[in-house]
Amino acid sequence: MESKGKYAFGIFFIILMGLSFYRLDFYITKPGGTYNVSDFLAIQNGDQDDQGSFFMTTVAMGQATPLSYAMAAVTDYYDVVKMTDVRQEEEDDEEYTVRQLKYMTDSQFNATYVAFNRAGLDYQVTYKGLYVLNVLAQGAADGHLKPGDEIVEVDNMRIDSLETFRTIVTPKVKGDKIHLVVKRDGELIDQNLEIKEIPGSEGRVGIGITYSESKSIKTDPKVTVKTEDIGGPSAGLMFTLELLNQLIDEDITKGYEIAGTGEMLEDGTVGRIGGIEKKVVSADKEGIDIFFAPDDTITEAMLEYNPSITSNYEVAVQTAAVIESDMKIVPVKTIDDALNYLNNLQPKK
């Protein structure tokens, strides 16, 4: 009997391990953390003598197992997402990670640009080239470029704008040669490619990559950012507010604990993000007083694609009501909306 019991336990243990560790082609998303932004960025000799704080919020995501898949089905604000809804076409784990980290880098750039602009302080922007996000299999760049590469020169011409790159590449036809200078891991590498048909493009030709612009910004005082393990663009709004709070003597938090989310664009617009309901849940658990939510415009094209879509702000309000949160949900279309709200806010007693 004892040996049968051990055998049954062994079988149960193997099944449990399989349910816990076998990877499915899905992700599980759930409320992540709520973090004080001042722990991640600082301005040299910046004002940090404030009563309140700004917080960024995150969504946690991991590859599903049978056990976590089952848990998500019965747990509020846990969702099962297809891998194809998260990753771009042909994107592997490395490329997905590179893309998310690039989004965070862009978020930091835009936050710094907007904050120094609003504070009336000088800054210097340098165009670094084009950042490779994804290399298409069987395309011209396959085997030559990698995600994370920066294309700094094309056919002996420095890439000082996206328009410069397009002017050089667009006239080329299938079979033409193209010479790239690429920055990889701090070193410059020469790459010679042959223009090919872009896979899946129905006859268009090119080098077969997806990319974004790469820029840096130099400021005085200097900004230091430490977000190596955080990806995505959604912390942009809160980064901008924290930078402004350190740049000026006034405590713009007015003593409140303020969280929020939203991509920061160069023109000061606050962009739509995903998973806002999970971020509201996370912020509420931390006892946040005020939550800034993007008041994004829903276009006809968006409604045609998804008839049930609503703005981030509307979802945030609905979520706060469902969980009976005391947080004040504030709609923001631009950084100025957030600053105007804070300017008119009475200090916390």
Please render the helix and strand layout as text.
Elements lengths: L1 H20 L4 E11 L4 E3 L9 E11 L2 H9 L4 E4 H4 L6 H27 L3 E13 L14 E5 L2 E2 L3 H8 L7 E8 L2 E8 L1 E2 L7 E2 L2 E11 L3 E3 L10 H12 L9 E4 L2 E2 L5 E2 L4 H10 L4 E5 L5 H6 L6 H11 L5 E5 L2 H10 L5
Parallel strand pairs: 3-14, 14-17, 17-18
Antiparallel strand pairs: 1-3, 1-4, 2-13, 5-6, 5-12, 6-7, 6-8, 8-9, 10-11, 15-16
What is the total tally of β strands?
Answer: 18
What's the number of domains? Answer: 2
Helix content: 25-40%
Major sheet: size, sense and barrel closure? 6 strands, mixed
**What spatial form do the alpha-carbon principal axes imply?**
globular
* First-last Cα distance: 69 Å
Helix count from the secondary structure assignment: 10
Oligomeric state of the chains? single chain
Domain PDZ: 100-186
InterPro entries: Lon_proteolytic, Lon_Prtase, PDZ, PDZ_sf, Ribosomal_Su5_D2-typ_SF, Ribsml_uS5_D2-typ_fold_subgr
EC number: 3.4.21.53
Pfam families: Lon_C, PDZ_2
Summarize the structure.
By secondary structure, the chain is of the alpha+beta class.
Question: How would you describe this structure to a colleague?
Answer:
The protein has helices spanning 2-21, 66-74, 83-86, 93-119, 162-169, 236-247, 276-285, 300-305, 312-322, 335-344, and strands spanning 26-36, 41-43, 53-63, 79-82, 123-135, 150-154, 157-158, 177-184, 187-194, 196-197, 205-206, 209-219, 223-225, 257-260, 263-264, 270-271, 290-294, 328-332. The protein has ten helices and 18 strands. The mean pLDDT is 91. 34% of the residues lie in helices and 29% in strands. α7 packs across α9 (312-322). A hairpin with a 2-residue loop joins β8 (177-184) and β9 (187-194). A six-stranded mixed sheet has the order 4-1-3-14-17-18, sandwiched between helices. The longest helix has 27 residues, at 93-119. It is α+β, with helices and mostly antiparallel strands. It is globular and about 70 Å long. The chain has two domains: 27-87 and 220-344, no CATH class; 126-216, Pdz3 Domain. Pfam families: Lon_C, PDZ_2. Residues 228-345 form the Lon proteolytic domain. Its EC number is 3.4.21.53.
